[in-house]
Protein: Ribonuclease
Amino acid sequence: MEEDRGESNMESIDEGKSTRITCRGDLTPFFEKRDHSINQIHQTEVPQICKDEPCQLGVDEAGRGPVLGPMVYGIAYAPLSRKQLLVDLGCADSKTLTEDKRDEIFDKICDNHDDMGWIVEAISPNSITTSMYRRSKTSLNEVSMNSAIGLIKRAIEAGANIVEVYVDTVGKPEKYQAKLKAIFPDIPKIVVAKKADSTYPIVSAASICAKVSRDHALRAWRFREGSPKGEHGSGYPNDPLTKKWMSENVDPVFGYPQIVRFSWSTAQTILGEKAVDVEWEDIDDEDLQTEPNEQKISKFFEKPQRKSHEFFTDRRLAVTHEL
Structure:
């Protein structure tokens, strides 16, 4: 393996398949080729030092509030002996950094792939909307927690020797922390705190990885529904470009492209004003009875049954178990 950033052994996982990403410059092409309707995970290989030495791990997100694009969760981990490295890299809360500064620090993180690793999950708008609209609703807090837990498990399963975990949260830290301790009883120290991204450099590193990934995902969004009008901006509801884009690109029947989180009040308000109303009639039990010559619509979606050979039917033989 070459020792430059181009071979930093970052890889992406999509529905069980993995594709290597070599540096920040590969993030945009990566997101351009992916199915935006499903969640995406990309990660670095665990450095040997992170397997041999005890490590700290930080968790943070980017894009929780926007109406457009994915919510991205990220983790970063590094040996306890490399705490000063994170400070030297300039790791700070990504929200306080300019985009150029975030990119610069992200590049440095990639350069130091022998000393630290990270994993990022881009949770699609479609996944967020589906979770919040299904009959058994899943709150955004639950979606966030499940992502964080999954990323921590992924790092541990890959061989990282995690002994400390620091998580930034917008909810109640005590309840979240208790749940993590129950799930990861072998991790001696777990801290869940508000503003952890500005307190712990390892959380700041996770924040930067998440934010840079979201920026590239939003820029590289490929619209399957056709080219929309204008620039969509940052995706935040108070962004004038985003407001204009939302107003100009609503379809009265189909609503919005998949980049939009339909469950957000911003989208619901515009749909209420500009989309056509749909009325669903109540169906009585009597209406469900079909006429003798009518077929139920579900019949068209059933898998056709294979007709048995006459050898078996003549002898009244039937398959009772398939190997």
Summary: The domain at 226-278 is CATH 1.10.10.460 (Arc Repressor Mutant, subunit A). The CA atoms of residues 247 and 270 lie 7 Å apart. The first strand starts at residue 10 and ends at 14.
